[in-house]
Design goal:
By secondary structure, this protein is of the alpha/beta class. It is 44% helix and 9% strand.
């Protein structure tokens, strides 16, 4: 399953991480007139067939083959580039090598955020999704180790640096998006070799908006509905609903409201800082970026 034709070229692939500015970066790419992306934000193609710690339901379309993957992209156009941006590849055991085998010259995009804040945001995101079930409190999540390994960026990102030349990897730090969005967009476009003078509309907008539920009962009903579909092995129905933007648009209209999350407790942050310290120090050297604010 190796692509050899120039007409099948994929110029860039975003690999994550989740809750670290990937939606902001994706918007910069979607709006640029020289960039073509699939209609779906995430294709989940290179993921391990058997799933992994964070993608437990076999979120992988690898078995569909490379022709299926390429069919999701607009045709190659002169003067334009094309690629995808998801958040599932960074931590996946198979994705780095699969990407390298198929697109050895592609460019890799990655967004990283202070792992303590990333984990906190990821926790609340899962609290407010229809299908996920998480520990009752963030403090309990930290105590039980819920998704903590996901913040060990160096551990996972080094695999891409081992496979791809440094010049083909572009790292974006969440803090820079917040503080210097125009510079971040400029450097992104420069890396991808498209018009750097283009100004995306996202520059003047918030990176993300926290959400909650209007009626918690509706959220619980949604969770049990997906659980029943899983028990009955109605995988096609469950995946159709999960992948269907109309389903989530309707649900969001009825039951999703803006919400301000409570601040993280100092005890939890201090515990996480100790957990991530060694990985952050290694990451600093790998990406050549001052991350002392994370320590």
């Amino acid at each position: 399953m190796i692509v050899k034709s120039k007409k099948d070229k994929i110029d860039f692939i975003g690999i994550g991480s989740a809750k670290s500015g990937s939606s902001w970066l994706a918007t910069c790419l979607i709006e640029h007139p020289q960039v073509n992306l699939p209609k779906e934000k995430s294709l989940f193609f290179f993921n391990a067939d058997y799933g992994n710690e964070y993608i437990k339901d076999n979120w992988s379309y690898w078995s569909k083959g490379i022709d299926w993957y390429l069919s999701k992209f607009p045709p190659v156009e002169k003067g334009k580039i094309r690629g995808e941006f998801g958040v599932s590849y960074l931590h996946d055991p198979e994705a780095p090598q699969r990407i390298k085998d198929n697109f050895p010259d592609t460019k890799i995009l990655v967004t990283l955020r202070n792992p303590c804040d990333m984990l906190y945001s990821l926790y609340w995101y899962n609290v407010n999704t229809v299908e996920a079930k998480v520990p009752e409190t963030f403090e309990e999540a930290v105590k039980t180790g819920w998704c903590i390994d996901r913040g060990n960026y160096y551990k996972y990102l080094r695999r891409f640096f081992d496979l791809f030349p440094r010049k083909n990897i572009h790292v974006v730090i969440f803090d820079d998006i917040r503080n210097e969005p125009e510079r971040v967009a400029f450097e992104l476009y420069k890396f991808l070799e498209v018009d750097t003078s283009f100004k995306p509309s996202i520059l003047d907008k918030k990176i993300y908006s926290a959400i909650g539920h209007r009626f918690w009962m509706f959220k619980q009903l949604g969770y049990y509905m997906f659980a029943v579909l899983r028990i009955l092995k109605l995988e096609k129905v469950r995946r159709f609903l999960i992948d269907n933007p109309i389903f989530y648009a309707v649900y969001a209209k009825l039951n999703v409201v803006p919400k301000k999350y409570p601040p993280m407790e100092d005890g939890s942050r201090n515990k996480l800082r100790k957990v991530y310290r060694k990985d952050i120090k290694k990451l600093e050297k790998l990406v050549k970026h001052d991350l002392s604010a994370w320590l």
